[in-house]
């Protein structure tokens, strides 16, 4: 179908309204859309939850009886909407294969697939999409702190039993991440609040290899084929703790 025949994006009478395709009349999902208005309109999607966002709805039970239906709907959707979703109601037990095939089709057609397990959940998705239509993405963006001390605190508190107070004790005592990683168990035990378990956890974080069984076996196989062991680096950390702190923006002071 040519893009000229695709219904234009409809502007709702109220900015808070979801536009519903008339083909959705009688769908129990409509009763589950709350906190936003609804109005019917000639749209390519089943639900228009934003001026650039269209949603197709599909019950897997219906899809099992009419597998060609959704493909014709995707074709009619054409290139309408910048953000396109297929909202699936998973209402059958044998759902893995049909969802897999639908996912492939959605990837080809630049459609995001979402699976819900009840009419209430479908209605909730539609309501939230409309409510967040004009919201900035700040609340779901990762908050990356560029401050060295904050990065140090975030890295070291990943060690079990180590809290923010302990990190400040380590920083004020040893000065830098590199010096903390070189601290001996005896030095750590002399610090206030550092018991045997906490010291052991810190020691393991910096010294225990960050490897799974496969890489360990491969390393053992390789070591048997070499005659000279490789010298160890001064910084003993081999896990993700060192990777978090020793970044290009981090300093050793």
From TrEMBL:
GO terms for biological process: double-strand break repair; mitotic recombination; UV-damage excision repair. Residues 219-253 are annotated as: Disordered. GO terms for cellular component: ERCC4-ERCC1 complex; nucleotide-excision repair factor 1 complex. CDD domains: ERCC1_C-like. The keyword Membrane does not apply. Residues 240-253 have a biased composition (Polar residues). InterPro entries: ERCC1-like_central_dom, ERCC1/RAD10/SWI10, Restrct_endonuc-II-like, RuvA_2-like. It comes from the Eukaryota. Residues 17-130 form the ERCC1-like central domain. It is found in: Nucleus. This is ERCC1-like central domain-containing protein. Keywords: DNA damage, DNA repair, DNA-binding, Nucleus. PANTHER family: DNA EXCISION REPAIR PROTEIN ERCC-1, EXCISION REPAIR CROSS-COMPLEMENTING 1 ERCC1. SUPFAM superfamilies: Restriction endonuclease-like, RuvA domain 2-like. Belongs to the ERCC1/RAD10/SWI10 family. One of its GO terms (molecular function) is damaged DNA binding.
């Amino acid at each position: 179908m040519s893009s000229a025949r695709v219904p234009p994006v409809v502007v709702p009478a109220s900015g808070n309204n979801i536009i519903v395709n008339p083909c959705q009349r009688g769908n129990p999902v409509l009763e589950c859309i709350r906190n936003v208005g609804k109005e019917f309109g000639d749209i390519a999607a089943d639900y228009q939850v934003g001026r650039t966002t269209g949603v197709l709805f599909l019950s897997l039970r219906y899809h099992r009886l009419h597998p060609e239906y959704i493909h014709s709907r995707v074709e009619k959707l054409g290139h309408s909407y910048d953000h396109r979703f297929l909202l699936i109601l998973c209402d059958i037990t044998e759902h893995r294969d049909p969802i897999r095939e639908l996912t492939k089709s959605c990837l080809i057609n630049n459609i995001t697939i979402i699976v819900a397990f009840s009419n209430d959940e479908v209605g909730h998705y539609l309501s939230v999409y409309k409510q967040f239509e004009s919201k900035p993405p700040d609340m779901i963006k990762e908050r990356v702190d560029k401050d060295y001390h904050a990065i140090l605190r975030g890295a070291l508190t990943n060690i079990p039993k180590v809290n923010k107070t302990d990190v400040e004790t380590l920083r004020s005592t040893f000065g830098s991440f590199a010096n903390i990683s070189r601290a001996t168990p005896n030095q750590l035990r002399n610090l206030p609040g550092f018991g045997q378990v906490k010291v052991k956890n810190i020691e393991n974080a910096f010294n225990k290899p960050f490897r799974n069984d496969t890489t360990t076996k491969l390393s053992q196989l390789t070591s048997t084929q070499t005659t000279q062991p490789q010298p160890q680096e001064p910084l003993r950390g081999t896990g993700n703790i060192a990777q978090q702190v020793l970044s290009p923006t981090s300093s050793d002071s």
